[in-house]
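Form 12-C: Joint structure prediction
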Amino acid sequence: MTVLEVVTGSAMETGSLGQRVGSLLGPGDFVALTGDLGTGKTEFAKGVAVGMGVDAAIPITSPTFTLLNIYQGRIPLYHFDLYRLAGEGDILELGFEEYFYGNGASLVEWAERLQGEMPGERLTITFSHGENGSRHLLFEPHGKRYEELMRELFPHNRKKCFDPLQDSC
Amino acid sequence: MLLLAIESSCDETAAAVVRDGRTVLSSVVASQIAVHAEYGGVVPEIASRRHLEAVVPVVEQALHQAGVWFSDLGGVAATQGPGLAGALLVGLSTAKALAFANRLPLVGINHIEGHLFASFLERPVEFPFLALVVSGGHSHLYRVDGFGRYRTLGQTIDDAAGEAFDKVAKLLGFSYPGGALIDRLAVDGDPAAVKFPRPLLHDGSCNFSFSGLKTAVLTHLQKFPLSGPDDPRLPDLCASFQAAVCDVLVAKTSAALMGSGCNRLVVAGGVACNSALRREMGCLADERGIELHIPTPALCADNAAMLAVPADYYLEHGMESGLGLDALAVWPLDSITAHLAAR
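Section 2 - Result
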């Protein structure tokens, strides 16, 4: 498994990286976003929506309270935020698997709450704070589909360090 | 008309009996009653199954408290959206079954539409009015020209105000949701102690943004970490953060009042319980010489009684939904007019 870390210097950079991920997502894809409050997950999600062709006039707002927001792009975008959930039991009762393996792509903030219900094949992106307001995004593909997605996402990469806007350092 | 209303769009399972969309005979919210004893300590919240466990006892309790039975009712209302489909279906299916079995007309109501009219249960408001709905999931400004006639003037572009309160509370070490605790601690704090940003304050729109404010609090705490749960700076931090949120909400509401020409203002939703916001909105209303309506805290939080206000109007005007209605996970208030026409 190729693990890659990307450092973004601004919210805009985090967003454009999200946009590139969004442009590559297809039906049934699952992207897990983990990391602390304020590390840029929602900013990234806004970019993903743009990349998936969601109407730019539609605000991509936080699904923390509603748990799930659905947007129509090229394919549906299921934007989850599981922050308020206690654990696996809640997830099963909410019937979210129908979305995870459905016609759209799932982008799941606080995906670690899924525990055993986390799809085995997925792209996990872990967000953390860096120096001077930068953000570190660790990309971990699980399964062939996501290894491939990573190669499309970072075609020129040979190192573990990126300028996300130019593909390489 | 005597209505039974059922709400299950998010965390609360609630039922109410209301006469003529004005007089609340009962308003029961699941977390307030002894359902947990009956069902082994479960406090009804997010999961659909918990709504399912709570809905029948809650409806029974609402009828019992109101001293009425199904045969006394003139109609049934339920939240049709927006919300989680699974949760919505519990209230909606219960309402359908009760309407069918008792041959009562049924109407599906938009949850936010309920919040807009919660204050009517205390004092009716003349149209048109401006409404600020602030809760865990919403920060929206609407112009309301009548029942079913709504226009969005502004909304959050990221986090809702209530979410900002709860997440900042978490950063301050309070357990989630801790928004109400910020309000309590802020009483003893200096709102000018820390200069937090006022996002989008001068962008000329009626939109809100609270995500950056949350990050500003985080950055501040990274620079000046708290010593623990008794850190003496907590009241100042709470007051300063709260002041930033209130300033933005008041400024945008003021701009929307100016732009819409409305001279009546309704503030609703869970965050309308916040004492600083109530106070600041009071000052705004005094300054502008407008009429202000903020419901009592019990009617600001999610409840079923508020649904009965628009429901009574729709049913009195023959606008039933019929038994075929389905839950609408996404249902912007602006689209209600078209939705009504299709009824």
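Section 3 - Comments
The beta strands of chain B are 2-7, 14-19, 23-29, 75-81, 106-110, 129-134, 139-146, 149-155, 264-268, 291-293. Chain B has two domains: 2-117+302-341, 126-294.
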